[in-house]
Amino acid sequence: MTIFGPAVDVRPLFPRERRALLDLLGGLGPADWARPTVCPGWDVHDVVGHVLNDYARRLSGGRDGHGGAVFASDETLPSYLARVNEEFVRASRQLSPRLMIELLDHLGPRLDAMWAAVDLTGPAGLDVSWAATDLPSPAWLDVGREYTEFWVHQQQVRDAVGVPGADDPELVRPVLEIFARALPRALQAEARPDGTAVELEVTGPAGGRWLAVRRDGRWRLDPGEARPAARVTMDQDTFWRLASRGITVGQARARAALTGDPALAGAVTMLLAVVA
Predict the structure, then answer these.
(1) Please, what are the domains in the chain?
(2) Nearest Cα residue to 104 out of 66, 63, 51, 35
């Protein structure tokens, strides 16, 4: 049994998420593009530039085989990503909002076509390090990670301009499903006897329940049933914000219910589904 649990196919949702984003951006005024977001140092224009970077980077690498920026000799993955993301965002400040909207609209269907050709059971184009660092990722998790990236950045823009949306359960549920794949890694430092289980319950219209079970010396997502040694319950808004670090661990714990083994429950609230 894979540690990542059942596959999740998010590919039909990319056009819907993008349509919601483009409709949102098309209605923003000049002042809205300058509003600060939860991303340190980035306003709305910068976050949209970062999303454009993601579109261009994945097409360039996944479709065209272009290697892109190279690691400096002293860089870790987080520092590399921080550098190249900031470089693109800084350059994108030269682009008008209208042009960025047009580029997203133009590149989006090409990205959809690239995802449609992916064998979801094959290896990932880019491993998902926040899910596991010692195992290759499946392609479906890589594609799912990109969906969560786009959806979260859209929510960050919506928060900044005070326009909620893209919050239908059909759009939100896969974000929670993919973020839950970080649960085994969140627990990895907690050694327990095989068979020990930990439950994460996320409440709300898009919520769900995920069980991590210790088997063969490591934690794995398990779709079955088990009596958990620890349980953490939080609402869906708290969960996605915690996983993307839109709120702190302390803020998430204040909004959550933790029961059972305190070390295991505390580890769940350290769950991180971004590279940091």
Answers:
(1) 11-122+131-166 (1.20.120.450), 181-268 (3.30.1050.10)
(2) 51
